[in-house]
Amino acid sequence: MIANTLRSSLAAATVALLAACATDPNAPVQLSAIQDAVCMGDYARAQSLAERAQSEGMTGMALHVLRGYALEKEGKPMAARPVYHAVIKSRSEDPVKLECEELVFEGPASQVAYDRMRVTNIDLAALDVTEEQLLSVNPLPPPVEEPAPMPMPTQMMAPPHVLAPPPAPMGEMRQVTPSPAGVWIHLESYKTPKWEESGWRTLMKKHSALLKGHDRVFRKVDLGKKGTAYRLGAGNFASEHEAQQLCTKFKSAGQYCDIMTR
Amino acid sequence: MKIWGLAIAVALFGLGFNAQAEGTAQGHGEAPAGLGDGAPHWSYSGEGGPGTWGTMSSEFAACATGHNQSPIDIADAETAEMKRLQLSYKVTPLELLNNGHTIQATYQPGSTLHVGNKAYALAQFHFHTPSEHLVRGAPAAMEIHFVHKDAAGAIAVIGVLVTEGTHNMAAEELIAQLPGRGGETVKAASTLINARDLMPDGMDYFRYMGSLTTPPCTEGVNWFVLKEPISMSAEQISRLTAVMGQNARPAQPRNGRLLLDATSTR
Question: Are the Cβ atoms of A123 and B256 closer than 8 angstroms?
């Protein structure tokens, strides 16, 4: 009898809680709802919510990055690319983060869009899409970041890093010995040193297994008329061959990677 | 014994292990004794049907657990400008194997498919009735798979849909000499065939990454399904079906895979 009463009370409380938690279909769409839909793999709903949010006046490039990602994951990279392109072109530094069971991406919107665009380039090139087609969606304005040599044709077509945040006080540059062989791998580039920490954190979250046992390398590079760039990467390789092997793994994971010897 | 050997032979043909298939092709010989000892027997219906392939053997696990399986329903493809399929096929003496699941024409080395800077050698082609790939939910009467392999072992398959229509002269050369019994091979050195004759003029295609459509359902297969079908007469399709039976694996989930529609090629 008591057990039955208790069970009924619990059921009633659960129903009340569920009702309270139920979302109001007329309430404005929140970014978190789009993120949840993406994390649940309901990409069509994520796109629909993103479109609704935009019509409701939601601003900020995070919305567009999430919409592009939903399109991409639904198997529509060709549709995602113009969305990413617009975000890259905006040079937005709106913070974007998507964390489902693990971190999917985190960083300034234009940087994340650039990374995703690069992944679509790799995927589409693997499916024999022509270089002309990949070049047809290319961010403007032209590169403001260092023209890093990119070994894969598709990466050559990828948009450059477009981060141009306000200058930040530059801390003392870490002088880490790249490796006994003088070799390190270049993974990211920035216009300012302020992205070193967050950039490394993001890399560690995305590629912790690959970076295990390797030191962070952060280098200032004089690009002449194009200014200064800051390269982030990893060192501590016994040989160039070892660095090459790790670079191949990074590329397979959709990460830009190049071998540096100085 | 014989049926196990046939099962393994079919699994191997899909992988492009043509040396194995050729090993069975001694006149009208059977599959080598012992080749398939202990191998599970799969089929297209009943107890060994497609729904059970993945649990028959650990080697077939991908049939059930894979997320990039073939065939698929071709719908909602994104258009893209794609690299052209360049065929350099030579004629080859007719060699048909009835491996118990399909009719397979073994191709001699020297015929190549180029896609951009990738080169794949044509190894064999075989038939499925009805078609395995669907186009917007609808099957064609038949599908021919032209199986290629590159130097590193990557597989590329061109799928050609066959609709019921006019009599196909090129197909008749094969159909007239079909090996009727499982394990039987027909060789006719004087009959030269060219796989290109069983393809349409238009080479625009749908492109995606999938798998072998038979156990072990290995993934990583480059699929090019041609948009333009060829035709065969109802009687020709009926004769092939009479020998092979219905041998189409059902469409598999797309799982968010990229599916591209090559509207124009370079």
Answer: no
**Torsion, Cα of A117, A119, A124, A125 (10° steps):** 110
| Cα four-point dihedral sign A122, A128, A131, A132 | negative
Terminal Cα distance for chain B, rounded: 50
Give catalytic residue positions of B. 101
- B209 Cβ contact partners less than 8 Å away, ≥ 6 residues apart: A126, A127, B68, B219, B220, B221, B222, B223, B257, B258
Helix/strand/coil (H/E/C) assignment for every residue in chain A: CHHHHHHHHHHHHHHHHHHHHCCCCCCCCCHHHHHHHHHCCCHHHHHHHHHHHHHCCCCCHHHHHHHHHHHHHCCCHHHHHHHHHHHHHHCCCCEEEEECCCEEEEEEHHHHHHHHHHHHHHHHHHCCECHHHHHCCCCCCCCCCCCCCCCCHHHHHCCCCCCCCCCCCCCCCCCCCCCCCCCEEEEEEECCHHHHHHHHHHHHHHHHHHHCCCCEEEEEEECHHHCEEEEEEECCCCCHHHHHHHHHHHHHCCCCCEEECC
Over residues B205-220, the pLDDT tens digits come to 999 999 999 999 999 9
Please report residues of B whose CB lies closer than 8 A to that of A133. 80-82
Q: Is the pLDDT of residue B148 over 90?
A: yes
Tell if the CB–CB gap between A127 and B208 is shorter than 8 Å. Answer: yes
Q: How many domains does chain B have?
A: 1
Q: Tell how strand B155-164 and strand B230-232 pair up.
A: parallel
Per the structure block, which two tokens stand in for B227? 């948009």
Substitution target in A76, A119, A124, A129 with the highest count of B β-carbons within 10 Å is: A129
Q: Measured at the alpha carbon of residue A81, what is the angle toward residues A80 and A83, in degrees to the nearest 5?
A: 70
What CATH number is given to the structural domain containing B226? 3.10.200.10
The per-residue pLDDT for range A145-204, each reduced to its tens digit, is: 444 433 333 333 433 333 333 333 333 334 444 555 578 888 887 777 877 888 888 888
Rounded Cα distance, B7 and B42, in Å = 7
Residue ranges, CATH 3.30.70.1070, chain A: 165-262
Q: For residues B140 and A101, give the distance between their C-alpha atoms in angstroms, rounded to a whole number.
A: 42
CB contact under 8 A, B78 and A129: no
3-state class (DSSP) for residue B109: coil
Task: Inform me whether the C-beta atom of residue A79 falls under 8 Å from chain B C-beta atoms.
Answer: yes
Q: Which residues of A touch B120 (CB under 8 A)?
A: none
* CATH class of residue range A165-262: alpha beta
pLDDT at residue B121 is higher than 80: yes
Mean pLDDT of A216-227: 78
Range of the domain at B225: 2-265
The Cα–Cα gap between B74 and B260 comes to 9
Query: Cβ–Cβ of B256/A79 closer than 8 Å?
Result: no
> Is the model more confident about A8 or about B171?
B171
As a whole number, mean pLDDT of residues B15-36 equals 30
